[in-house]
Amino acid sequence: MTDLDLTTLLLMALAGFGAGWIDAVVGGGGLVQLPALLLGFPGATPAQLLATNKIASIFGTTTSSITYWRRVRPDLRTALPMAGVAYVGAVGGALIGLHIPKTAFNPVILVMLVVVGAYTVAKPSLGHETALRFDGHRHTVVAMLTGFVIGVYDGALGPGTGSFLVFALVGLMGYAFLEASAKAKIANFATNLGALTVFVPGGHVMWKIGLVMAVANIAGGYVGARTAVARGSRFVRVVFVVVLVAFIVRIGGSVLGVWS
Asked: In the chain, N or C terminus with fewer CB closer than 10 Å?
């Protein structure tokens, strides 16, 4: 893993930038980074791939979280409790993920993406405006339960976590896409941190390539967050649908054996 050629480094950097941009706008950058890491380092273990992906992602989510905070000012009374339990869930998920073959999850992820995409397309007005479905403590409890469940998933596997967070905040809780993206970034930072709490002490991170991708992820996250804020919820919704379709094609092809 120490001798990296320039072509591989450039491809990983490109994947990191693209993943950072997608993550900042709608989430799901791991579905760009993980396949890139798998192609670049076919001999790496699943834990190494997941850990290196998390190192790159946490830098990008930190950047986009700060950008969203400055420009959108999401309500932290929901975001912080959600992030706290998401961290705990991700720690538990990472411990589980060390012992689970990742390929077993592809069919589950595919079904989830299809359901999310179909629901979003079927409701054109979804996510244009905030219309919260829960009040007071119920709102916080639902947010925390959502954060915990998705946190476990992110620690165990990860791809699409940001998209699932955005969809849960929009479809389940009633947020507009832009505000949902802002809150999702804070929770996604916590899930990345939770997974790294397990992966870093275990020595699973490929640091050299991870830091190269992290720099690119920061740039992508910054550009993506500014783009989303400038263009608004309609733009985020369009990108969300396009990204979901791309993910469905990518994972569906893997499940059906169209490509490896």
From this structure: C
